[in-house]
Amino acid sequence: MTELGQIAEKVRSKNAGPFWLTIDIFCGNRAAFDRVSAGLATETVAALFRAAPDMLKRFDIADLNVVKFSLPRPAIQGTRADRDMHGAAWAVLLEEVKID
Amino acid sequence: MPTVKVLIPTGALGLGYDRAALARGIAERPDIIAVDGGSTDSGPAYLGRGVSKYSRTTTRAEWRELMQARAVAGVPLVIGTAGTCGADSTVDWLFDITRELADELGQKLRVTRLYSGQNPAEMAAALDAGRISALPAAPDIDGDAICGCTNIVALAGAEQINAALATGADIVIAGRTTDTAIIAALPIERGCHPGAAWHGAKVGECGAIATTGPASGTIMVSFDETGFTIEPMAAAARATPYTVSAHMLYENSDPFLLYEPGGVLDVTGAGYTALDDRRVRVEGSVWRPGAYTVKLEGARVAGYQTASIALLRDRRYVANARGWAAEVAARASGDVVERMGLSHDAFDIELRLIGVDATLGPLERVAPMPGEVGVLAIATAPTEAQAGEIGKILNPYLLHHALSEDEPMPTFAFPFSPAEMSRGALYEFCLNHILALDDPMDAFRLVTEEIGHD
């Protein structure tokens, strides 16, 4: 098992508007993409964010060696419960997850 | 058909750019200069208050340079989402700056303001009439929620920008627009490929982010009847098929689709070709027209906040920070209920432990033992005065609360006096909805004025 951040070149999370979060895993090459694409289950990502799996969108984009997830923000941007206005820190949850 | 060249000086006015790259862009004779002035990315307070995130002095300094560049190029200069949020007040704010600069620079200008602000009562009526619909993950709303907004804006598209350009304006100061509309508008008006117009606009909307030199800012996007070509203006920056195609990922929940007023862009079939080592040609994007809707954004006050920071450095308190914080919050909450007469659900006290889990909260999975813990204490209440009172009730606990009764009274580090900082109103976004329009200009207003002198 290896941390995803050690396999991928970069993991980026950003707001996609105030209500959605989008996370791009830039794998850097085909081998890393295949490993992340096969080894990272959608259910794992949903559990990390405590998100409803049916609201989670997943894109495995082989042309870019990118795996992308979009989901409703854990808290709507700027509300009392929000801790991360620009949504950039949530990427660490994926960087630190271990996959085969 | 001639090419339409759109010069994008920077990803956002106020972010800076490479001056030499802008000069090169002007020398390439663009047909229009388009710059974005805003974003929701810094949160709801800017829209809630109707103010800019960037300083007036920085905005004025960069806008001055763009006005000078425009005079050299002799083409229109368009800014979208002026003043971060694109409320009517920030359009007027930038118009005031523009008027000052026109006098200072000796420029006689025709300036058109495009207002995107919406009357809350009219929006509540539109909700009743079934003209407003929710997008995915939208909060529940009703007429009261809409009427409680301090600002509501609609995101203008290409049609409204073209209406503003049709006034013969030298400068268009637009309120809230989609990020792409200011770039896509002129190519669409001149008959360029509509899929290319929107796709090129999406790639260009953040300036040079879609190149190898993101901080250089300035790029040129050239549109024609079959596609678009992107070229960074900074000497060292390069656009590659990878940097350009990967930009559809950026801040976009679906990397193949982009919804805009009046349709959707689909880039599934787009092909990206390197023309040389710095320019990329893109063809194959498709624009699918649909019903004419505009997205709405609204912000309202959700209470008032006072924040305090205390620092725990003593090892025993660092090790027991979570329990300590829970006790402080519980005791202060008890005092608030007893002394201020507020019910438990009318206010909130939250202590976030910086160094432990302040960033991720309940989603944190790692529990390191830090050398110190910052305690960010946030009081939220219905009024500013109440939030201030709660901040003061918290103060003695944050300063002196002991883990046990039989130890000498501890004193923790406060970085400030006074210890409490009033944050004023807590704003929240409350609309993720679209409004159906019969005519694109139904929700927007244009005002044209001559300013300055030769």
Map the helices and strands.
The complex is a heterodimer of chains A (100) and B (454).
Chain A: E1 2-3, H1 4-7, E2 10-15, E3 20-26, H2 30-39, H3 42-48, E4 57-61, E5 66-72, H4 91-95, E6 98-99
Antiparallel strand pairs in A: 1-6, 2-3, 3-5, 4-5
Chain B: E1 4-8, H1 19-27, E2 32-38, H2 45-49, H3 56-73, E3 77-84, H4 88-105, E4 108-115, H5 120-128, E5 132-134, H6 143-147, E6 149-154, H7 158-165, E7 171-174, H8 181-189, H9 194-204, E8 219-223, E9 227-232, H10 241-246, E10 257-260, E11 263-266, E12 271-274, E13 280-283, E14 286-289, E15 293-312, H11 315-319, H12 321-340, E16 348-354, E17 373-381, H13 384-400, E18 420-429, E19 433-436, E20 445-452
Parallel strand pairs in B: 1-2, 2-3, 3-7, 4-7
Antiparallel strand pairs in B: 1-8, 4-20, 5-19, 6-15, 8-9, 9-13, 10-11, 11-14, 12-13, 15-17, 15-18, 15-19, 16-17
Mean pLDDT, all residues of chain A? 97
The end-to-end span of chain B amounts to 35 Å
Question: What fraction, in percent, of the residue positions of chain A are helical?
Answer: 25-40%
Describe the global form of chain B.
elongated
C-alpha-based Rg of chain A, rounded: 13 Å
Number of strands of chain B: 20
Low-pLDDT ranges of chain A: none
**Number of structural units classed as domains of chain A:** 1
Poorly predicted parts of chain B: none
Structural class of chain A: alpha+beta
Distance between the termini of chain A: 5 Å
Query: Can you tell me the overall shape of chain A?
Result: elongated
Which value, in Å, is the CA radius of gyration of chain B? Answer: 26 Å
- Number-wise, the strands of chain A total 6
Order of helices and strands of chain A: EHEEHHEEHE
* Count of runs of 4 or more consecutive helical residues of chain B: 13
Strand order of the largest sheet of chain B: 12-13-9-8-1-2-3-7-4-20
Biggest β-sheet strands, sense, barrel of chain B = 10 strands, mixed
What is the strand arrangement across the widest sheet of chain A? 2-3-5-4
Percent helix of chain B: 25-40%
Instruction: Specify the oligomeric state.
Output: heterodimer
